[in-house]
Design goal:
D-Maltodextrin-Binding Protein, domain 2, six-stranded mixed sheet, 21% strand, binds glutamic acid
Length: 275
């Protein structure tokens, strides 16, 4: 009798464990606490930044808030940087990283990603009228942010263009604002990163800076998610697809990148939709 009971208890335990494992720990916890902790940048205009009223705003902020709203949760915003946005996901300090982060295969080794929710590419920002094309930057100093795809891409670009000092001519800063500062002070000839970040900063001093040359990389943004937690990943993907389907995505997009904004960036791609 006793062993029968024990067996039943063991089976029940295994079932509970299996359910939890299948449901995914993040989704379960989020549904219990009704709080989603999102890693958000602070220095990416207009992705996520502090405006003149000291409000934390931007496209990534709105996307994260919208995901939380659709799941009936409150969003807890956690400030992240280029350096911490992956580590915080790995350490379980945040449930998602909505942080203008390019989905790279290499990054996929440490965390998972949502479907692409934003499509950008890399360009170079420089003082107006000074440079015409990429090769004008050979032998010049270019600012970029440490630990980003931008840093790797711009070094490769200078290398391909034949700059023997491509390693030292790319100067890496911690933050976007530091890159822009260096550009404004003339310490570098250009600043290179995703085009929307460059547009965002350039609009702070209209008429002074311009983008030079075409895109030289694809930067598909994905939301960084905990590794091997497919229930949570599904729910985040469904939320992105649902906001695309009912027009909310377009509304948020136009608020930040539409023709009436100082950072007009036409939406040319479609989000992957699962029927
Ligand atoms: N999106 C690029 C990246 O994920 C560059 C911009 C940035 O990280 O802030 O590395």
């Amino acid at each position: 009798m006793r062993s029968w009971k024990w067996q039943m208890a063991a089976v029940a335990l295994v079932l509970v464990w299996a359910q939890t494992a299948l449901a995914g720990p993040t989704f379960d916890r989020v549904m219990k606490t009704k709080v989603i902790r999102a890693g958000i940048m602070t220095d990416s205009i207009p992705g996520a930044y502090y405006n003149e009223k000291k409000e934390w705003v931007g496209m990534d902020v709105d996307i994260a808030e919208e995901i939380a709203r659709r799941m009936g949760c409150k969003l807890e915003r956690v400030a992240v940087s280029n350096k911490t946005r992956i580590a915080f996901v790995q350490q379980g300090r945040i449930d998602m990283s909505v942080a203008n982060m390019t989905h790279k295969r290499e990054r996929d080794r440490s965390i998972d990603f949502s479907i692409t929710y934003f499509f950008d590419g890399q360009k170079i920002l420089a003082p107006k009228g000074k440079f015409k094309e990429h090769k004008d930057f050979v032998g010049q100093k270019i600012a970029t942010m440490q630990g980003t795809t931008s840093e790797i891409n711009v070094k490769n670009l200078l290398k391909e263009l034949g700059d023997p000092k491509y390693e030292t001519n790319v100067i890496s800063f911690q933050k976007e604002s530091e890159c822009f500062q260096a550009l404004r002070m003339g310490r570098v000839a250009g600043w290179s990163t995703d085009s929307t970040i460059l547009l965002g900063y350039a609009a702070q001093v209209p008429g002074e800076f311009e983008l030079v040359g075409d895109f030289f990389s694809n930067e598909p943004y994905g939301i960084g998610l905990p590794e091997d937690d497919s229930k949570w990943r599904d729910e985040v993907n469904f939320a992105i697809q649902d906001m695309w389907a009912d027009g909310t995505y377009k509304k948020i997009y136009d608020k930040w990148y539409g023709p009436d904004t100082p950072y007009y960036f036409p939406l040319t791609e479609k989000i992957e939709m699962w029927p």
